[in-house]
Design a protein that fits this description.
Helix 1 (8-24) runs antiparallel to helix 2. The protein has two domains: 8-144, 2-Layer Sandwich (Fructose-1,6-Bisphosphatase, Chain A, domain 1); 156-272, D-Maltodextrin-Binding Protein, domain 2, CATH 3.40.190. The strands form four sheets. A seven-stranded mixed sheet has the order 3-4-5-6-7-8-9, with helices on both faces. Strands 11-10-12-16-14 form a five-stranded mixed sheet. The protein is an alpha+beta fold and 273 residues long. The longest helix has 20 residues, at 253-272. It has helices at residues 8-24, 45-58, 93-98, 161-165, 185-193, 208-220, 253-272; strands at residues 35-36, 42-43, 65-69, 83-91, 104-111, 114-122, 127-132, 136-139, 142-144, 156-160, 178-182, 199-201, 206-207, 224-227, 241-242, 245-248.
């Protein structure tokens, strides 16, 4: 159980992560068939099994709580709820299908539009991140906090593997920080929350279910989260698609925003010339 926490929300998250871990054990990463949804995103039997189990474990009072999941048809009833579960049963399905150990289950609790609690489990690496704004965050049962690095020089930045493959990170090849390409935005956010990386950001839009849990964990660990347009992250919107996300260590917010602003101006100048 979570040390020193009587939060029923965290207890539900913890139980759901354990159920998910057991379901993952039934499948072999790299040896599972995938179908492809509109937009060419893969989906597997594991995605569907996890979605059903998480809904059963988490949504115990549908009159007071809403539900938003990548694998559940959205009926918008959640928009009238103050508390909403925002879930990605399997974030990093491409990595799961390829047998790359960068996938996870991501569970976020949103209250009045703000991510306030989250849980992320990577069953391949046996990592569990769980916490809330109220309780702080634990990593495999031990209390952790975000990195305290104060400069971008030498910082570890986790980037989207697909964005790197498409060449969208070439603009940062000469940056003072180190870039590591990785799958699953939720897993990257968990690693930032645990202080295992200093920053992560995406250059393309993401959905709320990709980021709600990780955003709650990063902020609960003392870090910060913003949308790519520098506005606060608000969840349980009618359209769950958001601009890209920025997240990181507390002292790196201003240096990163300044760097991204310089790069944005430089790219705008190139397009005009």
């Amino acid at each position: 159980m979570i040390p020193n926490s009587n939060s029923e929300t965290l207890q539900r998250i913890e139980a759901a992560l354990e159920s998910a871990r057991k379901i993952f054990a039934r499948f072999t990463p790299g040896a599972i068939a995938a179908e492809y949804k509109v937009g060419h995103d893969p989906v597997t039997e594991a995605d569907r099994a996890l979605d059903a189990a998480l809904r059963k474990e988490l949504l115990r009072n549908s009159e007071d709580e809403g539900w938003l999941s990548e694998e559940t048809v959205d009926d918008f009833s959640r928009l009238g709820k103050r508390r909403v579960w925002v879930v990605d049963p399997l974030d990093g399905t491409r990595e799961f299908v390829s047998g790359i150990s960068e996938f996870c289950v991501s569970i976020g609790m949103v209250e009045d539009g703000q991510p306030v609690a989250g849980g992320i489990c990577n069953p391949a690496t046996r990592e569990i991140f769980i916490g809330s704004i109220e309780s702080g965050v634990t990593y495999n049962g031990k209390a952790i906090r975000a990195s305290q690095r104060a400069t971008l020089e030498g910082a570890l930045v986790l980037a989207s593997r697909s964005e790197v493959k498409r060449g969208e990170w070439k603009q940062f090849e000469s940056a003072e920080f180190n870039v590591r390409a990785m799958g699953s935005v939720a897993y990257k956010l968990g690693l930032v929350a645990a202080g295992h990386a200093d920053l992560t950001f995406t250059l393309v839009p993401k959905n709320e279910w990709d980021v709600a849990a990780g955003a709650a964990l990063v902020e609960s660990a003392g870090g910060w989260v913003l949308k790519l347009d520098n506005s606060p992250l608000r969840c349980n919107q009618k359209n769950p698609l958001i601009t890209g996300l920025l997240a990181g260590a507390p002292y790196l917010r201003d240096p990163l925003l300044a760097l991204l602003d310089r790069h944005s101006q430089a790219l705008a100048g190139e397009k005009r010339s």
